[in-house]
Write a structure and sequence with these properties.
The structure is a homodimer of 195-residue chains.
Chain A (H helix, E strand, L loop, with lengths): L6 H15 L5 H7 L5 H14 L2 E3 L5 E3 L6 E4 L15 E4 L1 H5 L6 E5 L15 E5 L8 E7 L2 E10 L2 E5 L15 E12 L3
Helix pairs in contact in A: 2-3
Chain A binds a DNA duplex (30 and 30 nucleotides) through helix 3.
Chain lengths: 195, 195
DNA sequence: TTGACAATAGAACGATCGTTCTATATCATA
DNA sequence: TATGATATAGAACGATCGTTCTATTGTCAA
């Protein structure tokens, strides 16, 4: 039972190791995961992957993946003709952790309850990212305390007066008393189907 | 000018190194980044961080971070009283890359155009994750070809008949002809404010 | 069959790894 | 000031690192 080793096989196994262990394998470990008995064979294949641009070496000579294996392709805005022809034009990749969160230390997540922002496309059970330590501006969606409860509202500033408005005609605008408490600004909304 | 070194300082510098380089520093590198001249000092502080549970060692003895430094706290669903009292109850952290994408290889991103799913809370310029190689079920939102254009619709199966319905009264339900083409199932919606 | 090339094995090299030791310097508190 | 705890320095250890070498095996085309 002879197995032909291909460049893609080796790449997949190294990426699998990275995803599982959170770090790149050493040459000894590559020797194990590709199923050979000599480190020089691992070196042989890694040299090929370096040549192919799949792997890189950082300033200290450590192996790194050229691309984040969890990143996704971002198709263009124009859907027409997709996906038959667009396979080539697809580009721009994103790591959500970096894309969505600017300041991890001053941010937290909140599972949405209620329908106060339904017309802004924020629905029950959505997850929002709330960034504290961020000054709310006119039109921002904020997490604010209203009547002793925390809720999401549009932050509307007209001159010196501030009003909190829901994105739902059910609720009336609120002109807060002196003790306006704002926990943070909503910087992103995430909704996941198929839990 | 004497600087007092604290456990938090060392932790921050190690996390900063990890975020910048995508890997954990060696003891020699820790020696550099915390500004001392002996590896044993790095070992001294790492031992403290291991003791404090900030760092771990994996099966092979490599240092790893106990928690993903990009992960965010998830506040409970009940907002009442937040955030004064909830600081202690906050738990459950998430890495979006892992949370949102199950199969990176068969998924891609799409910037939404049009308003066909507005009543489902999917708006123009939102980003959706489309998973190909996933069988659509009744009620799923799919990316489908309608009249030569790709658009998002509810996938509705009643017995053997399939209809595509928009979440917008402007558009009528569609009973597709034989050549129903579905690119994939929408598994998540992402909206980011404050680009 | 033969020759050329690709792939694997195994051994060896210096360099760096993580660890551990002793010794010194600094600080807080009695 | 004296004392113990904390923090830093420096040297040394075996183990593993990445690299490089020679030698052998396997594959495919001439």
């Amino acid at each position: 039972m002879k197995v032909k080793r291909t460049l893609q096989d080796v790449e997949k196994k190294i990426i699998a190791f990275f995803l599982k262990n959170g770090r790149m394998p050493s040459y000894s470990e590559i020797t194990e995961i590709i199923g050979v008995r000599s480190k020089s064979v691992a070196h042989f294949w890694v040299a090929k992957l370096l040549d192919a641009g799949v792997l890189q070496k950082d300033a200290k000579g450590f192996l790194t993946l050229t691309r984040n294996p969890r990143a996704l392709k971002l198709a263009g805005e124009v859907c027409a003709g997709f996906p038959a022809s667009a396979e080539e034009e697809i580009r721009d990749i994103v790591s959500f952790d970096e894309y969505l969160v600017r300041n991890p230390e001053s941010s937290f997540l909140l599972s949405v309850t209620g329908d106060s922002m339904i017309d802004a496309g924020i629905r029950e059970k959505d997850i929002v990212i709330v960034e504290t330590k961020k000054e709310p501006g006119d039109g921002d969606i904020v997490l604010a305390e209203v009547d002793g409860n925390w809720t999401m509202k549009y932050f509307c500033r007209k001159g010196k007066t501030v009003t909190l408005e829901a994105a739902n005609p059910k609720y009336s605008p609120i002109i807060p008393r002196a003790d306006l408490r704002i926990a943070g600004v909503i910087t992103a909304v995430i909704r996941k189907y198929h839990k």
